[in-house]
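Input sequence (224 aa), recorded before submission:
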Amino acid sequence: MTDTPAPAHGASDPRPDALPLVAGRCFGDGDPLYAAYHDDEWGVAVHDEHALFERLALEAFQSGLAWITILRKRPAFRSAFAGFDPKAVARFGDEDVARLLGDAAIVRNRAKIEATIANARATLALHAAGRTLDEVLWSHAPAVPRTRPATGADVPGSTPESRALAKELRGLGFRFVGPTTAYAAMQACGVVDDHPATCPVAVLRSGAPVTGVQATAGGGAPQG
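Predicted structure, token format:
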């Protein structure tokens, strides 16, 4: 699955659990694109190989930038990188690198572009060895379910699991996957769910009704 951003939330949203645009989220309140990502993607389990490769790539591109910048450029990234199909990206050569460096709609960083191509090739090598990104990523899920962070300030930037994941990925030939980027990918793919306990999405996922939502929470925006 190469997913597309969910529609903006609002009064016309048909889902019974849809939150208003301003709801006291840990991040994303007030911006329809960011709110949809917060509600529908961050912390939600992902197992499809294309989607996992995309998230690893975008988390690497985010390094040093705000996630909303990457989110707004995601359609352009998908177009530029052949829908994040690892087989297609692995075939990219010098002409493609030059094309991408000239594409103002994406982040024009040579190291990140070349790392994405190298990571596509590493993904194919992983598949040729009979393994998957899904297996690698999820093998580093915390062994014991964690207590939700109380606030955004309690969300870690990296963990022992993300350090182990980064080490394994580097050993498999992946680049631009340090412990912080690895942890951001774990959050983006639902390996961990770091919505603080007071975030309305955390409340919804617990099965409890959300009452009295207001724009007071903050601090849990994705880090890369």
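Checked by second reader. Residues 1-16, 213-219 have pLDDT under 50 and may be disordered.
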